[in-house]
Structures are given as C-alpha cells and as structure tokens.
Amino acid sequence: MSSKHYPEAAYYHRPVGAQLLRHYARRDAVRHATPLLPSFADIARMLAWVPALFERKPGTARQN
Known about the structure:
The protein is mostly helical. The chain has one domain. 48% of the residues lie in helices and 0% in strands. It has 3 helices and no strands.
C-alpha cells in the first residue's frame, strides 16, 4: 500500500476570516461579471429560430 504525500495547504497558515474574505471576493467577481438577464441581442438570437418550428416543408402535409 502506497502512502500519498499531500503538500501542506496554504490555508492552514491563513486565518479563517482572511480565507472567507478571499472566497467572497472571488465569488463576487464572478457574480458581477455574469449578467442576471441575457441581453436583448441574445434574446433575439435565441428567438430567431422559433418561426422555423412552424414552417411547413413541401411534401410533409398531413393526409386526412
């Protein structure tokens, strides 16, 4: 059985408050960089393909 040697984590030497501040700063940076709502251009691009769902292709009409 081999014994794994893990390097000592840097956070062992950092106070808990400092760890939390660093964590929240990274999290907030991601949150502020990510928009809550998509832009109008993104919405228009997503909806542009919707009419294609309702187009009838030749030769695909239902036979009653």
